[in-house]
Each structure stands twice: as structure tokens, then as C-alpha cells.
Task: inverse folding
């Protein structure tokens, strides 16, 4: 039944593809990018109901005047911009390590085939926990604290993971600890980076 499970995300994407054209554009996008004041007010009323949105509209107009001289860059321009290369490299290495580390650990853990669906469910559950937890504390802690804390936690978890992998041949229970550390790594990644 894995094909059904994997096709579920495709079904959700198809439903979004069908219904998204019927939703209004984002009011900030309409005003800041397109310069469409009437469309912005119309979208606000469609999204949030009938009332006076002059305060929100004025805030967007202030933001528009502040960012008036700022050029909006496309993806290629961002990639050519030298000042963002360190951030792009960090993100690239993080994403690659996140993609590759789980495969190796599950491989070395020699998990029984009957347990693998539960491990996959655990990975998804870890992502859900990190989203809920991060959204509840981001206003209290701030982005900088979450980013730094997330990177520190990820580094610590990766050190512990390496130790577990090195010693997993001597202590079989460390294989399961490495799976738990993968879950914790995903939670730490979701909290900050």
C-alpha cells in the first residue's frame, strides 16, 4: 500500500492546483508588487470579510514607500548576488545532509521490515511536532535565538549520531538510539533553520 500512501501527497497537490485559481491574490502582493490598490482592498474584503481595512491598507502603503527604491530580484539574480552566497551554501549543505543522513542511519540500524512504516510515521510526526512547537515559541524567543539554538542542537545531535554509528556494531541498542537522534535532528531543524 506504499503507492497509495505516496500518491496521497500528489492528490493534495492536485486539489490545491484545482482550487487555488479561485482564491484571491495576497493583498500585500497586489499592492507592493503589482501596485493594484483597488485589487488589494477587494482581496482584503474577500479574505477577511466586510469591514474597514484602512489601517492595514495604510500600513501596506508605508511599507511600499519604504521599499520603493528596492529592486525585487528573481532567483537567478539572488544566486549571482555575492552577499548571500554564505547563506545559500549553508542552506544547501543542510538540505543535502538532511536528505542523506536518514538513509544511512536506517540502513545501518538494520530495522525489521515491519518497523519501517512506523519509522516513517515517526519522521512525519517529528516534523509536525517541530512545526507546532516553533510556531508557538517564535514570537517569544525571536528568529535569531531559534536559528542559533537550532544549529547548536543539530550540531550536538550529529556528534551524538556519529558516536552511535561508530559504536553500533558493539552495542546493538545504539542502532535504535540513532533512529531517535534522527527524529530529534528533524525537530531541531524545524525549530530553527
Result:
Amino acid at each position: 500500500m506504499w503507492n497509495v500512501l505516496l500518491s496521497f501527497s500528489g492528490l493534495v497537490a492536485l486539489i490545491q492546483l484545482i482550487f487555488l485559481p479561485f482564491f484571491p491574490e495576497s493583498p500585500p502582493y497586489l499592492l507592493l508588487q503589482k501596485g493594484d490598490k483597488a485589487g488589494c482592498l477587494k482581496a482584503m474584503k474577500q479574505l477577511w470579510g466586510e469591514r474597514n481595512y484602512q489601517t492595514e491598507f495604510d500600513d501596506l502603503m508605508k511599507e511600499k514607500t519604504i521599499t520603493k527604491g528596492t529592486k525585487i530580484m528573481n532567483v537567478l539574480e539572488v544566486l549571482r548576488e555575492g552577499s548571500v552566497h554564505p547563506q545559500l551554501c549553508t542552506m544547501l549543505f543542510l538540505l543535502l545532509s538532511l536528505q542523506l543522513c536518514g538513509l544511512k542511519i536506517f540502513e545501518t540500524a538494520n530495522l525489521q521490515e515491519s518497523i519501517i512504516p512506523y519509522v516513517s510515521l515517526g519522521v512525519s510526526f517529528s516534523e509536525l511536532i517541530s512545526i507546532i512547537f516553533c510556531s508557538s515559541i517564535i514570537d517569544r524567543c525571536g528568529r535569531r535565538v531559534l536559528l542559533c539554538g537550532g544549529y547548536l542542537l543539530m550540531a550536538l545531535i550529529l556528534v551524538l549520531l556519529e558516536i552511535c554509528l561508530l559504536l553500533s556494531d558493539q552495542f546493538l541498542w545504539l542502532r535504535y538510539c540513532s533512529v531517535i537522534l534522527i527524529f530529534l535532528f528533524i525537530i531541531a531543524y524545524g525549530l530553527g533553520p
About this structure: The chain has nine helices and no strands. Residues 1-72 form one domain. The mean pLDDT is 77.
